[in-house]
């Protein structure tokens, strides 16, 4: 029977674990898909993307047609601190100097101040001039779709007189630009929401000699672009050297000049995955990444389906193993965690090796959450199994005690049955010397005695078998103190023999607690007998009653002896099966008593200090 119970328990656990695993898997998968779709994990995705970008090696240089012209310390020493008076005249001279060296165009990466009155208009420029136009107001800050630009910073009057190429930057230098870190390739401008391409892409289209629409850019569904901003290796010239004409023409010929300020604490810095860098360095790295095609390929439906298939295979394998290998559950929670780690390795490897961006945060967290759910679930199963094994051991031990008690009772009762039956048999075997045949009423009396003892034997067996089965509780609303008094009366002889004095603290009006009188009488007998045995030389047994609790009213019985007490480390052990401090005992009395009280939804505890006696407390819910 025990073997059958163990097998059914394993089957039950297997099915429960399979159900919980399947439910957790579906919840994690649905949460990952929904969160990825709604952009709930964008922040974590960007953080992991920063980390992955740093792992990706820089692409091989292929002579990108750009050169940096920086306003360095020598330039500020000769022309004064930046910005300069009559700055537009200085910039105009720079554009003509670069054009004379064969430069194809000039890209200013800093905001130009309002025009001074004495500045000459920028007309008849020899090469295209690209200007970053700061966005002042944006209508939409949501995470999907390009932003709608309400207004731009107006162009200075001297520049507006010419024909420069101005527009928003792909990488804004500050949050006020309204363009998010998921670099938008275009924005929508004006009431008619006309598309306006980022200024870097317009420069790139001119450098490649292609229309903007034909640029081979891996844009996602929202028009976003993800360049990897590695440190660029471009020729760097001094602003002052260009103005003085001391730059060799072969360094500038057929290149595009990127003009800006180097990294200094006094100038605006842009935060990138590789640390804070100046606007000049960011734009140079951005154009370099665009030219060398150092871009992330956003995932499509095929990639997403492939990711889901791998995620399902790695994480779902834990559910299959859980149903097949239930007795070895200790390592199964690591399966979804391993699946999440494997997904992370694939996502990182795809970016580092092939430049493919696979979402990492949502599915990684999904696998981790499922792993934690499995940990708690498996731990619960193991605790339940341990509890069942403990209860089974208690039940078997209790049945051992019950068998001994039943044997003792049966011996006495069988002797009471044997005596009248043997007397009648011998009488008739000897010729009926007692004249029972003439007095059948005497035979009926002896038969009634036999039947009385048979009924008593059946009652003993029924009570003992029902003692440890909480499902057979017959709870009715009784006075718990009255049940205690009934148990105490059966121990009057033992109490008198030990010389123990009884002190009762009980109010005249008492509530009722639903309980099974026979089983609670067994509990009190066990506790009272323990208290009397703790005072073999006499003492005082204090019995107390109290009620309490507003939300959950209760009745509490206290049994306090004046014995030597029990050390604190020994108290909880007393409830363990087979743990006893008595020379003659199996150590199951308190374990059985606690189980009966728990079956009544109550509480049994011991309180003791050496030298101050021991107090047993029984608390049951009170009838409202």
Largest sheet: spatial strand order = 6-3-2-12-1-11
How many structural domains in the coordinates? 4
Count of beta strands: 23
Mind telling me the C-alpha Rg? 46 Å
Strand content is: 15-25%
Shape: rod-shaped
Summed over residues and divided by their number, the pLDDT gives a mean of 75
Low-confidence stretches: 1-10, 173-181
> Termini distance?
42 Å
- What share of residues is helical? 40-55%
Can you count the helices? 18
Class inferred from helices and paired strands: alpha/beta
Q: Specify the biggest β-sheet.
A: 6 strands, parallel
Describe the structure.
The chain is of the alpha/beta class and 624 residues long. The chain has four domains: 2-55 and 301-387, no CATH class; 66-293, no CATH class; 406-471; 473-621, Histidine kinase-like ATPase, C-terminal domain (Heat Shock Protein 90, 2-Layer Sandwich). It is 48% helix and 16% strand. It has 18 helices and 23 strands. It has a six-stranded parallel β-sheet, sandwiched between helices. Strands 18-20-21-23-22 form a five-stranded mixed β-sheet. A four-stranded mixed β-sheet has the order 4-5-8-9. α1 runs antiparallel to α10 and α16 (517-533) runs antiparallel to α18 (589-599). Mean pLDDT is 75; it is low at 1-10 and 173-181.
What features would you highlight for this structure?
single chain, 624 residues, alpha/beta, 6-stranded parallel β-sheet, 5-stranded mixed β-sheet
């Amino acid at each position: 029977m025990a073997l059958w119970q163990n097998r059914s328990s394993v089957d039950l656990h297997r099915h429960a674990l399979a159900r919980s695993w399947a439910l957790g898997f579906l919840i994690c998968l649905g949460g990952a898909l929904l969160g990825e779709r709604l952009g709930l994990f964008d922040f974590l995705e960007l953080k992991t993307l920063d980390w992955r970008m740093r792992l990706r090696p820089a692409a091989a240089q292929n002579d990108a047609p750009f050169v940096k012209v920086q306003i360095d310390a020598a330039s500020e020493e000769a022309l004064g601190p930046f910005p300069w008076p009559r700055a537009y005249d200085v910039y105009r001279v720079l554009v003509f100097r670069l054009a004379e060296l064969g430069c194809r165009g000039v890209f200013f990466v800093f905001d130009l101040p309002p025009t001074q009155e004495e500045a000459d208009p920028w007309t008849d420029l020899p090469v295209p001039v690209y200007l970053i136009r700061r966005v002042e107001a944006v209508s939409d800050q949501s995470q999907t779709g390009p932003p709608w630009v309400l207004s731009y910073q107006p162009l200075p009057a001297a520049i507006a007189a010419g024909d420069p190429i101005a527009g928003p930057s792909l990488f804004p230098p500050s949050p006020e630009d309204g363009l998010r870190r998921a670099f938008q390739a275009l924005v929508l401008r004006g009431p008619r929401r006309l598309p306006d391409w980022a200024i870097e892409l317009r420069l790139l289209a001119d450098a490649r000699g292609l229309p903007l629409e034909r640029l081979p850019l891996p844009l996602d569904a929202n028009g976003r672009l993800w360049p990897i901003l590695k440190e660029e290796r471009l020729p760097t010239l001094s602003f002052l050297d260009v103005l003085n004409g001391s730059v060799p023409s072969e360094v500038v010929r057929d290149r595009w000049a990127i003009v800006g300020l180097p990294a200094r604490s006094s100038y605006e810095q842009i935060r990138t995955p590789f640390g804070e860098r100046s606007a000049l360095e960011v734009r140079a790295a951005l154009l370099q990444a665009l030219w060398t095609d150092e871009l992330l390929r956003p995932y499509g439906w095929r990639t997403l389906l492939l990711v889901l298939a791998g995620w399902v295979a790695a994480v779902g394998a834990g559910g299959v193993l859980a149903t097949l290998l239930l007795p070895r559950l200790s390592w199964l929670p690591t399966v979804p965690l391993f699946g999440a780690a494997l997904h992370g390795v694939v996502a990182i490897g795809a970016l580092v090796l092939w430049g493919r961006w696979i979402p990492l945060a949502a599915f990684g967290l999904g696998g981790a959450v499922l792993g934690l759910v499995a940990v708690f679930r498996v731990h619960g199963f193991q605790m339940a199994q341990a509890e069942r094994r403990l209860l089974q051991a208690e039940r078997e031990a209790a049945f051992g005690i019950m068998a001994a008690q039943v044997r003792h009772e049966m011996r006495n009762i069988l002797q009471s049955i044997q005596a009248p039956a043997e007397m009648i048999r011998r009488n008739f075997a000897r010729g009926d010397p007692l004249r029972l045949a003439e007095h059948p009423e005497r035979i009926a009396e002896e038969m009634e005695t036999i039947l009385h003892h048979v009924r008593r034997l059946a009652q003993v067996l029924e009570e003992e078998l029902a003692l440890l089965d909480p499902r057979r509780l017959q709870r009715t609303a009784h006075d718990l103190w009255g049940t205690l008094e009934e148990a105490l009366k059966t121990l009057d002889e033992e109490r008198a023999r030990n010389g123990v004095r009884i002190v009762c603290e009980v109010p005249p009006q008492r509530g009722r607690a639903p309980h099974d009188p026979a089983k609670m009488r067994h509990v009190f007998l066990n506790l009272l007998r323990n208290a009397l045995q703790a005072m073999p030389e006499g003492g005082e047994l204090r019995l107390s009653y109290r009620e309490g609790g507003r939300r959950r009213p209760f009745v509490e019985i206290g049994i306090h002896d004046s014995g030597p007490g029990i050390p604190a480390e020994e108290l909880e052990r007393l409830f363990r099966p087979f743990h006893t401090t008595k020379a003659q005992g199996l150590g199951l009395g308190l374990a059985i008593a606690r189980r009966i009280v728990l079956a009544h939804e109550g509480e049994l505890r011991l309180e003791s200090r050496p030298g101050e006696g021991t107090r047993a407390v029984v608390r049951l819910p009170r009838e409202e």
